[in-house]
Structures are given as C-alpha cells and as structure tokens.
Specification:
Elements: H1 10-20, H2 35-48, H3 61-75, H4 77-83
Helix pairs in contact: 1-2, 2-3, 3-4
C-alpha cells in the first residue's frame, strides 16, 4: 500500500496502514488534531488503493459534510466527482 500521495505525517499514515490491515481502534484527540483528515484519508485509501467500497455514517450532517470536504481536499475536485457521493 502506497500512502505517499497523502499529505499526512508518518504517524497518521501508520494508523491508516494498521486499520486497513484489520486493526480495530479509534482516534481520540482535541479539535485540530487531524481526526477527520485521518478518517477521510483512510476511506479514500481503501477506495483507491484497496478497491473497497466505503460507507461513512456520521451522527450529524455537519460531521458528514466535514468528512466530504476533507476527502475532496485530499483527492481534488475532479477525482472527488467520481469517488464521493454525499446523500
């Protein structure tokens, strides 16, 4: 799995690798720690590199919007049009 295209630090890439290899866990941290970005990057990586379908369920519309926004920032608007559906 190549995560070098993601603009994330080594610790976040390590978390994504571990999760995609079957690890179970949660991200806990204060606002601005990168939880949403890491979660979005994990979903994008699973879809693009592992060819998996991803369903993200959020408790609020605001949280779902934030994940979509972060996902779009990671892959760019053209790829996001093909990859992400927000309902």
């Amino acid at each position: 799995m190549l995560l070098s295209w993601l603009p994330l630090d080594q610790e976040k890439q390590k978390i994504i690798r571990w999760r995609l290899n079957g690890g179970l866990g949660s991200l806990i941290g204060p606002p601005g720690a990168g939880k949403t970005t890491t979660g979005a990057a994990e979903a994008i990586t699973a879809a693009m590199e592992e060819n998996e379908r991803v369903l993200l369920v959020a408790y609020t519309n605001t949280a779902a919007n934030e994940y979509c926004l972060e996902s779009c920032k990671l892959v760019g608007p053209e790829v996001a049009k093909e990859l992400i559906i927000r309902t």
